[in-house]
Amino acid sequence: MVWKSESWGYNGLPMAGQGVTSLPRPRQEGSLIALVGKTEQQRVSIDRNKEHLEKITRINDDVLGYNLDGKLVLMRYAQNDREFDLYTTLPFVKGVTERETGRTLLILGSNAHHIEAMQGQFSGTVWSTKEHEDLKKYGNTIRWINVGDTKEGFIGLDYNSRAKAMDGVALNYQDLKFVAETLLQFGYSPQKKLFVLQPPYIVERIEGKEFRKQGLETLADYARRDTIAGGRKK
After folding, report:
1. Residues 136, 163: contact at Cβ < 8 Å?
2. CA separation, residue 224 to residues 11, 107, 146, 148, 155 (Å)
3. How many helices (H) and strands (E) does the chain have?
């Protein structure tokens, strides 16, 4: 899956085999970690050799604003829902959270895809491009994006109740609730909006619209509700 985002002035997201080194790094211990790249000439890093992993203690506005140095923001695409256009100037950050443990990784100052940054950091993660086959397994994790800061903007979560466990998406309402609870613990405002999306573009899923009709709009809404009609994997 490729989230449609890019840095201003840069028109490509290099993948393996295109000048990007993405060998697994030694595991960085900690419940909240970040892949951090150095921004140069107002662009986020595209050189994985100049990026490092580090443990962080909390998610705050400074952390989420780090990508603005490299002008990494949500971009407008014709396929996106037009309602999301008001967020296009806000900082854009990718993240991933492991089910059950809550271990979370942020991607800062880098245009790395989720699967690149996850190498060596989560059990069951596989990325292989051998024989022209792009195989991706995301372990027991759920990918998400953040647009804005800890309060403004939104969290976008990919949701598909028919997906496989290693597809890296939320499979049911309990997954959405778990990520919401985890992000609240790490420092997000309870009023931060959460949208249930269907990538590769920023498009809200029908299920997400139904959840909003039932009063679920913010992290706090998802965290406090135990069950919801139609929200469990069948």
Report:
1. no
2. 41, 28, 21, 23, 17
3. 5, 11
Token pair of 174 as six digits: 């309990």
Tokens of residue 155, six digits:
């969290």
Nearest to 169 by CA among 204, 131, 148, 199: 199
d(CA 175, CA 178): 5
Residues 95/104, Cβ–Cβ less than 8 Å:
yes
Structure tokens at 41: 């000439």
What is the pTM assigned to this prediction? 0.86
Instruction: Kindly report the length of the chain.
Output: 234
Per-residue pLDDT of the chain (234 residues; tens, 9 = 90+): 333 333 332 223 333 334 344 567 899 999 999 999 988 878 898 888 889 999 999 999 999 999 999 989 988 889 999 999 999 999 999 999 999 999 999 999 999 999 999 999 999 998 887 766 778 999 999 999 999 999 999 999 999 999 999 999 999 999 999 999 999 999 999 999 999 999 888 999 999 999 999 999 999 999 998 877 555 443
Report the sign of the C-alpha dihedral through residues 170, 139, 2, 51, in that order.
positive
Separation of alpha carbons 45 and 42, rounded Å:
10
The number of CA neighbours under 13 Å toward the Cβ of 144 is: 27
